[in-house]
Design goal:
alpha/beta
């Protein structure tokens, strides 16, 4: 399988996205369960247009085929896939404060590209959780480990300590802020009007280190032309609301810009094992 993935990684991005778009639509057509799940998720947000369902399916196919290229190509080649950049000046300025920077990357567009692009400009430590498909773990870890430029750490206490050390060195850390955390690591707050168990780790690290937080994403450009990297500061929480509410609201705003590129197949509303289900909001 690794040999096949290496072959896929060598294909040009326009071809990967073209084939991936078709593949995603085929899966959408052949899986009633997937269609139902996708339709319900979009309907709950008020975005239930049938054209959007098809676009989401196509983007998921692109995400599947672009991953080997991102993980297996040399870092300079991956960074060159980013052909448009906006907001990097915020990250650069944040780094001058000497506290490091926190890169928060929701599951929008090609989130794997974000860490790689940052690694091409400054050292970054990213947190990972083993994928359900075990054969992909070694591939994923290899893609997220780029020598001194990029280090991957497990989502545990040791991993958090390593990220804190990276911030003290004035480096970057990467977090997926819309990933459902484990028991005791989250708070039930609204996400598109429904309770979603939302990580508190991001806010705790930011408070402990005073490191600025930036919401970053890499949008897919049409025709496989590459990606548009963007970064913007996470809004500050008001006295009357939790940082988790601010985080979810900011992610919602990003999703509304490019709803077809969000990972709607991810169960953002699941109740983790051992967590008390939410009360109605």
């Amino acid at each position: 399988m690794l040999f096949l993935l290496r072959l896929v990684a060598c294909l040009p991005l326009p071809l990967l996205h073209a084939v991936g778009g078709v593949l995603g639509r085929v899966v959408h057509l052949c899986s009633p369960r997937y269609r139902k799940y996708l339709k319900e998720n979009l309907a709950s947000t008020g975005m239930s247009d049938s054209g959007l369902w098809r676009a989401v399916a196509a983007e998921m196919g692109k995400a599947a085929l672009e991953a080997p290229a991102v993980w297996l190509r040399p870092l300079p080649d991956v960074a060159r896939l980013v052909v448009e950049v906006s907001g990097w000046e915020h990250v650069a300025e944040g780094r001058t404060r000497g506290r490091g920077v926190i890169i928060a990357t929701p599951h929008i567009g090609c989130w794997e590209i974000v860490g790689q692009y940052v690694a091409s400009r400054m050292p970054i430590t990213v947190m990972y959780r083993p994928p359900k498909i075990r054969v992909l773990e070694a591939l994923m870890r290899a893609g997220r480990s780029r020598g001194a430029a990029m280090t991957s750490v497990p989502a545990d206490v040791g991993g958090v300590r390593t990220m804190l050390k990276a911030l003290r060195r004035g480096e970057a850390i990467g977090v997926l802020p819309d990933q459902v955390p484990g028991v005791g690591e989250g708070e039930w707050v609204p996400f598109f009007g429904r309770p979603a168990y939302t990580m508190t780790l991001l806010a705790r690290i930011a408070e402990k280190t005073s490191a600025p937080v930036f919401l970053c994403l890499a949008e897919r450009l049409t025709g496989g032309r590459g990606y548009r990297f963007s970064a913007e500061p996470l809004p500050a929480a008001q006295a009357s609301e939790s940082p988790q509410r601010v985080l979810n609201r900011a992610i919602e705003q990003l999703i509304r810009r490019r709803p077809e590129q969000y990972l709607w197949g991810y169960n953002r509303y699941k109740v983790p094992a051992g967590v008390q289900p939410p009360a109605a909001l």
